[in-house]
Amino acid sequence: MALLDLKNLSIEYKLSDGKLKAVDDVSLTIDNGDILGLVGESGCGKSTLIKGIINLLPSNGKVTEGEVVFNDEVLNKLSVEDMRKKRWKEISLITQSAMNSLNPVYKVGKQIIEPMIEHDKTPKDEAMKKAEQLFELVGLEKGRLQDYPHQYSGGMKQRAIIAMSLALDPKLIIADEPTTALDVIVQSQILERINMLLNQYDGSMILVTHDISVVAQTCTKVAVMYGGKIIEYGDVNQVLKRPNHPYTMGLKNAFPSLVGDKKELISIEGTPPDLSKEIIGCRFAERCPFVQGKCRKGEIKKTSVKNGYFYCARAEERDELMKQADIPSTWESN
Ligand SMILES: Nc1ncnc2c1ncn2[C@@H]1O[C@H](COP(=O)(O)OP(=O)(O)OP(=O)(O)O)[C@@H](O)[C@H]1O
Ligand SMILES: [Mg+2]
């Protein structure tokens, strides 16, 4: 049984003049120990998808189809109260705006040990010891536990939130660009340490990131999202070494590199589709270098591969497209 099983999940937002389909028929599974990288351009639906998983959609957002099954339980049918009980202990969330989620009136240390004492009945001194270890893990001095949030810099707050999210050994951590406030070197260090910790108890993570090189270094699986849909999904080695979808092939140019000297973002030309309009054919067609007439018709069928899938109207010609895309050999050695 998978730890998390998303079954054909669709999510819509109500707009004043219609609706917007932010997540379209998404399926994927996460097993114990998996680290899934969720990548895609701004606005493709990453945050919406994870808010849908954890039942935190804003009032105009709604799961319109499908199920979120976590540990054999359907999460999107749970009450807000039942869902709250699962937070921190079973699923913990680090959001893009996590930095604002520390309570300004309490010392940071108190905020970290409290859930341990409450949920796990951990004695206070033991909880404090664990908080110190977690601070060490994220690169903060343990003396800082006695400070208030306003005494922290933005990057320090972000580290404290990461420490907090790890405090109860959650089965699943969902991290929405958890390290954007930190520089790239620190980013990869912290991710590596989170990974080591998760390894110790077979914990899993969904890591939302813009950066494909972070995925290559950190993740076991990857889901590539484009215009509300996961257009390619599978094992990291498989997808990055042998991408099947032209968008995934193009990512090598669209994402900044962790190594090497070039950090700016070179994007694939064009803009993603308007999600408030019905999409006919492939949603990447407008920007795809390999587009043909058949790409703009009907619904694109899913092609299954080992441990994954992709959506491309020219799936059968994939090897030829890959040759034309000129994937650099450095990808093979990742
Ligand atoms: N509360 C909302 N009401 C209406 N539309 C929304 C709402 N939140 C997000 N959207 C729209 O849903 C789509 C997906 O947004 P989402 O925030 O999930 O993208 P994202 O991939 O997380 O982007 P980013 O990388 O910038 O964080 C976008 O078109 C966005 O404008
Ligand atoms: Mg987001």
Automatic annotation (TrEMBL):
The protein's topology relative to the membrane is:
Peripheral membrane protein
GO terms, biological process: peptide transport
GO cellular component annotations, sorted alphabetically? plasma membrane
Q: Which CDD domains match?
A: ABC_NikE_OppD_transporters (cd03257)
Q: Does the keyword Transport apply?
A: yes
Q: Which residues form the ABC transporter domain?
A: 4-252
Q: What is the lineage of its organism?
A: Bacteria, Bacillati, Bacillota, Tissierellia, Dethiosulfatibacter
Record protein name field: Peptide/nickel transport system ATP-binding protein
> What domain of life is recorded for the organism?
Bacteria
- Keyword annotations from UniProtKB, A to Z: ATP-binding, Cell membrane, Membrane, Nucleotide-binding, Transport
Output the PANTHER family linked to this UniProt entry. DIPEPTIDE TRANSPORT ATP-BINDING PROTEIN DPPD, OLIGOPEPTIDE TRANSPORT ATP-BINDING PROTEIN APPD
The similarity annotation says:
Belongs to the ABC transporter superfamily.
Q: Which GO terms describe its molecular function?
A: ATP binding; ATP hydrolysis activity
Where does it reside?
Answer: Cell membrane
